[in-house]
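Chapter summary example.
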Amino acid sequence: MADLLAGAYLAKGTIGNVGTPGASVASFSLVVVPSQHSVSGTVVITQAIQGPDSRIVVPVTGKIYATGIGNVTQVVGLKGQYVHSVPPPAIGSFLADFDAHLAIDNEWNGTGGFSYFGHTIENVPVKAVNQAELV
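The structure predicted for these 135 residues follows.
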């Protein structure tokens, strides 16, 4: 049982065109357990344009696998759901789906994409956040 979390680590970064006006960006904070091929954590989707989708917090789970293909050493798939509220004049909320896919190197840099209610972002940079910057 002690080996269940063998090699676990924290991965933080972004998916999207950071700095591009109006671009949706997904920031992730994930606990990765390579020995179990599991990933879990939180994704925060932000967009500079005000509205119901300007900041969304999504709890996610997923899988990570080694590839052995050139610079892409790992692939990651994430999925989750969040509460999406309908703007007036309609009233109500529902669970909306989120999913993401990443093709990355060992430092969590590469290319990926994500989708959430009414939005699909493909072929955008994935960039790790330097852990020293977090302190």
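To summarize the output: The two ends are 32 Å apart (CA to CA).
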